[in-house]
Amino acid sequence: MSDSIELSEMHWLLAIVQNIDVGVVVLDREYRVDVWNTFMENRSGRLPEEARKKSFFELFPEVDEKWFRRKVENVATLGTPSFTIWEQRPYLLRFKNYQPITGLEDFMYQNTTLFPLKGLDGRIQQICLIIYDVTDVATNRRQLQAANRELQRLSSTDRLTGLFNRGHWEEMLRQDYARHRRYGTNTALIMFDIDHFKKINDTYGHQAGDSVIQQTADIIRQAMRDSDIAGRYGGEEFVVLLPDTDQQGAMTLAERLRQTVEAHEVRHEAHSIRFTISLGVADLSLPTNGYAQLIEWADSALYASKSGGRNQVTLYRH
Fold this sequence. Notes:
Blueprint: H1 2-19, E1 23-28, E2 33-36, H2 38-44, H3 48-51, H4 56-59, H5 65-78, E3 82-84, E4 110-118, E5 124-133, H6 135-156, H7 166-183, E6 187-194, H8 197-204, H9 206-223, E7 229-234, E8 237-243, H10 247-263, E9 266-268, E10 271-273, E11 277-283, H11 291-307, E12 313-315
Parallel strand pairs: 11-12
Antiparallel strand pairs: 1-2, 1-5, 3-4, 4-5, 6-8, 6-11, 7-8, 9-10
């Protein structure tokens, strides 16, 4: 009677293994396949008789053999399971993703479990590999992360120019000022606006004015370093925050910006538009009572450039 029950249980277990919607592979200690369920057959395109007693590494050459052997040997030595998750390793076996809804990736994201199987003598003679298809979860998570990144980008950038908006670059200045107070680092700020911008709008229209602003932003991006932070102050006014930069470095960049803009031509419809900018430069080499004072100094230097005839760079001095 007990033999009959054991055979019946074995039959049930085999049916479960074959029909469960996860990959089940049992490997002997030489990494040859002993069990290969329907999931594995369908995803790999190999029948069980084709896979059985074949080397796991021959069947799946994409597997990092050294890493996988180390993982399996730890399971066999310690007698405890081991896991991988898709966030750390997107897949173990490169199966195609056939799900049309989540078809953004051409492979199946996988979580895996490795656990030891003991023989009748109590020794670990085989290792079972379970493969879970988590493509839906992974794709949804990645889409959510991408959406959050895009929302963060939109919340910190100016829509017309793609430069940082005032809230974001001012926060960057606040952080840089805190670093200056702690470590004595220098920081410079360039502030400038487009000369006679209202006249450009009145003469050529607001779309032309938008083109002038956008192309000015492009010039800034091309001139600045990776560590610099460029933003729109409002209207036709811009700022460039220069960490770890002294007066001379800031003045050099400001003059390069001025010359590049002066030589630039904006083509809008049938019109050729030329324009200039006035710039003010300030840095933290002078004693300050807060990061906002650097903005005030740069703004004051900008006003001096405009009062002095425009199309020039002025350094703030006491």
